[in-house]
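Session log. Operator J.P. requested a structure for one protein chain; no other inputs attached. Running the standard single-chain path with token output.
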Amino acid sequence: MPQRVEFMIVLLGGLWLALVAGYVNTLMIILGAPPVTHVTGSITRLSADLGRADFKDALLVGLIVGSFIGGAAIAGVIVGGSTLKLGRRYGIAILLESALLAAAAASLPHSVHAATIFAASAAGLQNALAASYRSLIIRTTHLTGVLTDIGFSLGRLLAGHQRPGWTFLLLGSIAVSFVVGGVLGALVATRSGAQGLWFAALALLVMGMGYFALRKLGRMGVLNALNDAD
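Structure written below.
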């Protein structure tokens, strides 16, 4: 088992981000937008648009894909590393994602297209925060990679190779959290409509501020003391 405190921070952070991603994606779909937390479907739609010469829709989908890439580029500038390290500037990235979702929430009552572009940029930023932790790549905006890793780990286990239990706990929890977020997104969309996106922005604001508090505790030596106690 990895150091308990470090693992719990990674687990809780992954769950929070996956919950928000599932929530935003489902809420946006119910309100009439295409999926925003991943771009495979959007690329397929873009291909279909080009094949049918539907250039108006192709332009919109191209903007969504470009916004996703732009968000990922911003994360690359801010974080600057693919290995998960709690001292990196994740807090700034998460606060910026919160601001992008707030912009999406503000524009959603007026333009679903504009809100989709802002939300896709936020999703690209979060997706680029995927980092290697021990032997895993932590992904929180879609489940393809997570379920692939679960299946691969199960196959290794069935083949007689040892797989640490924390890998299944982490991956399985992220998958469940994404689904739960989607359920919450559906419930909120039917009750609050476009206003429901503000809850996601607030959730990330809380997380970003929490990360800064966590870094302060790390500088004070509190986390090391807890690890030593384990």
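Operator note: Strands lie at 131-133, 136-138.
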